[in-house]
Amino acid sequence: MQGHLLSLSAMAAAAVSFTVSGPVAVAAGTTYQEHLAAALMTEREAIRTLPPAVLQRAAATAEAPTVPMTRRDLMRQQVTLAGNGEFQCLQQAIYHEARGEALAGQFAVAEVILNRVDAGNFPGSVCGVVNQGASSGRACQFSYACNGSSLSMGERGARELAARISQVMLSGAPRELTDGATHFHARHVNPRWARVYERTAQIGAHLFYRQPVQVTSN
Length: 218
What we know:
Layout: H1 2-15, H2 32-48, H3 52-63, H4 71-75, H5 85-98, H6 103-119, H7 126-130, H8 156-170, E1 183-186, E2 198-203, E3 206-210
Antiparallel strand pairs: 1-3, 2-3
């Protein structure tokens, strides 16, 4: 309930930029309840004038989940997406690419995958991103997808942690660790693209990079 009240207040505040209204007209002798009802009616009318995009942004900001700060908090999260293919692909990638990392390192790998989904020059789904190149066996974007190792997730604790991270990130948690990174590599390797792309973060055993935006011209 509190979340809905906060959303309403945020959207009403946003309405100030789009509407011009005078003070609420209240007749002399009205009760407090009548005055409050008149104020709420004015607020509702202001919200109705907002463009749909503004409403969507306000709702997304109010409802976006926060990233749990500790492993204990994270493990308390309920997993509701377990049957979803995108969830399964993200969980598997986190497990195989970063299960030895601290919590921040695992979230950072999830960010890279979701940043690629949104980038436009990579496949538009989590499964497409993590399996890119795997069908040919060459130029795999994520080594675990085609290095011949088992894709099973045998370590229960790491598997369940990866599930919670996937749940939180696919639910729309903010991506604030890697500054829009689309690539990462372990510190003991030096891929050629790392000399060209901008490094955005160093978290645990991984370095993170952002691929330059390619602008086409006619």
